[in-house]
Structure formats: structure tokens, C-alpha cells
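quick one before i forget lol
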Amino acid sequence: MIDSMDWPTAQDYNDALLNPKLSFNDAELKAGQVELSPEGLPCSTSGDFASVYWMQCGQHDWAVRCFLRQLTDQQQRYTAISQYLARVKLPFMVDFEFISQGILVNGNWYPILKMEWVNGELLDKFVEKHLHDLATLRLLAKRWVGLIAALEEARIAHGDLQDSNILIVNNDFKLIDYEGMIVPALYEKSCNEIGHPNYQHPNRTGREFPEYIDAFSAWVIYIALVSISIDPQLWQRVGAGDEFLLLHRRDFINPDASATLKLLSQHSDDRIRSLALYFKYFCKKEIWQVPSLQESKLWFGSDQLSV
């Protein structure tokens, strides 16, 4: 058994990726080439749990997710998620394979995720680039409502809905990073993570029932898309783009003292005012009391604030 203290660092993985023929077990990845920087080093994006690399393998490109620490029940979780996603076939999900002996680092085999590579733009970058394309942002807001409805119908909780885990491809969504995902087979287990604080209910602990955990972050993203589509100047006024779209954890912790929520609740547009006032109410409730985004039809009419 590998001691958790010996888990590879991002630099260890960088070194291994320079020689895919020796480092990978998977035949397709062995024949691939990692994307390199101008200095000849593997390019990666790293988070708390993993470093992700772009492997170009002939006619097919893959994202290889190399874990930076050992996670409880990792193989069981990913197997359950993979099997369930293959069954429900949601168009905004990405195919992946968990390979338990995926990459050889310093004489030991470690697991990887081999995921379909998606050429898209992160949500925050896309919104910033399209601040004055109001029709596109409004279309995204409507499609976001549909995505959340599909997740709920499939009884899936993503667990970490945030700008860095949402790609925009052809003006539609792709969700990535399934570290905290819960499918029905995992309902009795706690979450491995509690998500980005700028998108999560401030009282989230990781022990909540799965049906509740995405509701708050779904509202955070929806409110941002709707509000910015109505008033794009809000992006600059709140200094958005640094790991948040419009609202921030500080707004959730003390909504009555929030400068951003005050700005929104006093806005000249009644749709933005209504969203802000209801969201302040949600912040003061327990996580299980936050209504589904689907209930926005009850609050604001069937046309979703006429966005």
C-alpha cells in the first residue's frame, strides 16, 4: 500500500508526463504527446485535488487528471459515477474512465482519470468576453435552468458548480470535475469536498442530503447570468472575474451588510431587485430550505424573469 505521504506532487507528474511511453499503462496514452509550454514543460491546470494535462493521441485528445492526494473510496466513487452517467446520458456531461494503475511515478502506480477533452471556454472567461452580447447571456441563463432541471430529474448532485468547473461549448454548457459528484449509488456517503466557497451556502458541511447541495450554487450562477445580461456594467462595478461571477462568499455570510446585494436590491430594474431580495432570504435559511431553481417559475413567472 502507498503511504499518503508519498503521493506525487504536481512536479512529479510533470516529470512523468515527459515520457508517456514509460509512464502510462493505457495504450492510447502511451502513444500520445502532452501539451508543452514554450520552455518544453508539460502544461497543466492544478487545483486542490488534481493536476490536469492535455494529451494529444492521434485522432483523439484526452484530459488526464492526476490526483494530488488520496481520496476515500476513490475507485468506488468514480466507478459508480461512470456507470450511472453512461446510463442517463446527459449531453452536458463528459465521458471518462478511472484507471487504477494509470501512471507510474517514482516506481509506484497511481490512479488517473482519462477524460474526453473538451474544447471550450471557462464560464467566467466566456461571460467577460460577452458582456455586451446580451442575447447570448440570456440564452445561457435559460439553458442553465434546463441543465439544473435535468440534473434534478436524474437525481445527480454535481457538488461543486462554479466557474472553473463549467465550460461553454457552442453557447451551451459542459460540466467537468466530478470529484464531489453524488449519484444514487453514493447517497449514503458524505461528499469528498464542499465546493468553492464563492458558490456554496455558508453552512454547507458535506453531510447534507444530495438533493439539496446544488440548489444554492445554481441560484448564484443564475442570478449572475440574468443580472449581467440586463446590466453588463455590474461586472466592473463589483470587480467580478476573480473566482466569482457576481456574488461572493462575503455576501452570503452577512447579506444585510453586503455591498453587492445592496447594489442589486436597489437597482433600477425590478427583475434584478427581485432576485436580490429573494437571494438575501435564501442566505438566511438552512441549506435544505433553499428552493430549487425550478421554483423560480413560482417566484417570477414561467418565462424566467423574461430573460
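fyi The chain has two domains: 4-116, 121-306.
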